[in-house]
Amino acid sequence: MLSIKNISFSYQESKVLDQISFLLEPGSHLSVMGESGSGKSTLLKAIYGLLDLDSGEIFWNKEQVLGPNFNLVPGEKYMRYVAQDFDLMPFTTVAENIAEFLSVFEQENHEARIQELLEVIELVDFANVKVKNLSGGQKQRVALARALAQEPEILLLDEPFSSIDQFKKNQLRHSLFPYLKEKGITVLNATHDPNDVLSFADNVLVLKDGKMIAHDAIQQLYQKPKQKYIASLFGQVNELPISLLKEYSEMDASILIYPHEFEISKDAGFEVYVVNNHFKGGYYVIEGVAENSQTVFFTNPNALKIHARVYLNVSLQLVNRRISIKK
Ligand SMILES: Nc1ncnc2c1ncn2[C@@H]1O[C@H](COP(=O)(O)OP(=O)(O)OP(=O)(O)O)[C@@H](O)[C@H]1O
Fold first, then answer.
1. Of 110, 113, 172, 249, which has the fewest CB atoms closer than 10 Å, so is most exposed?
2. 42 C-alpha to ligand 1 centroid (Å)
3. Which residue has the CA at smallest separation from atom 30 of ligand 1?
4. Could you list the residue range(s) of the whole structural domain that residue 181 is in?
5. Is Hydrolase set as a keyword in this record (predicted)?
6. Cβ–Cβ < 8 Å for 27, 186
């Protein structure tokens, strides 16, 4: 179990982590989300022991993680941190880079382990290519394989696919995350990308200005976001006065609605007129304006005529789930 107990950290005068506490079960996958500068990397660095905390404690089971003031060589054997800058050996091959981190006591397994890890990072054909000749995204994958070579109990990933193109990213998510689950490796993944989170994370921790503002199971967090900031991490979201819906016209509260949650109708719901269509591949996000002059985004399989008037409705079930937010 990873226990983070009330940790705070400041760079010079500015507080970057503010009293963060949470527990992480072994083998589970936690995504750390938050806008740029919210403290995601700093949290991972603190957990890895790269920072001296202002206050608080970090434990992996019974072992305390200590910062550089107490630990000359930061980093614990049971934990690996894959940073945004990958620390590789450029003049040796991909296979040699991975082999460097395999256990010297298991020489006879090295070939098989290198092959296994090359498959996870999908670089089998690059085994004998020198790292200096790889693209940024390929280097990032080698850094991942090196971390895995050390068979960590906890893996800290800082934007693990940031340099990798969309196509490869998808393949890699589907090979890496199930591999980590199968091996029982505990994962903390700092990411901006909801696609890293939605199908793979068990829980999500949300940071805002160094404070933990949510820590919940992924589905709960997505379905019942406590504020727009949280819902926005998963893409576009509307925050509307509930009074736009006839049944709630007297109520002074706002409601968060993802664009795909509207039902379009010819006559039921509230009226919007169409001002723009945004092509998204398999569907369109339509930009409309409601009677209170507020912009509303909703999805539709096809583009709609500019200036067309449509009615948007939301299921009662959804309203009841979300309605808790007071203005
Ligand atoms: N070495 C440093 N010295 C001083 N301030 C720093 C340092 N590193 C980060 N910060 C500041 O700490 C805050 C949190 O940074 P951090 O890198 O943890 O954010 P982040 O959420 O990981 O951002 P991003 O998503 O852009 O990587 C930011 O305001 C940043 O400017």
1. 249
2. 6
3. 37
4. 2-230
5. no
6. yes
State in Å: Cα 40 to ligand 1 middle: 8
Residue 127 and residue 24 share a domain: yes
pLDDT: is 68 or 326 the higher one?
A: 68
Closest-CA residue, ligand 1 atom 4, reads 11
pLDDT > 90 fraction of the chain, expressed in percent and rounded: 69
Identify which of 35, 38, 43 to mutate to test ligand 1's pocket (most ligand atoms within 8 A of the CB): 38
**203 with 268, same domain?**
no
As for ligand 1, residues whose beta carbon falls within 6 Å of it are 11, 16, 34, 36-42
Quick one: 98 exposed, middle or buried, by C-beta within 10 A (0-12, 13-18, 19+)? buried
Burial call 188-221: b when 16+ CB within 10 Å, e when fewer: bbbbebbebbeebbebbbbbbebebebbbebeeb
Number of domains in the chain: 2
The closest-lying atom of ligand 1 relative to the alpha carbon of residue 210 is 14
Taking the centre of ligand 1 as the mean of its atom positions, its distance from the CA of residue 259, in whole angstroms, is: 31
Distance in angstroms (rounded) separating the CA atoms of residues 327 and 275? 27
Q: Which of 38-42, 84-88, 108-112 has the lowest mean pLDDT?
A: 84-88
Q: Does the structure show a pLDDT above 70 at 290?
A: yes
pTM exceeds 0.80 for this model:
yes
298 has pLDDT over 60: yes
Protein residue with least CA distance to atom 31, ligand 1? 37
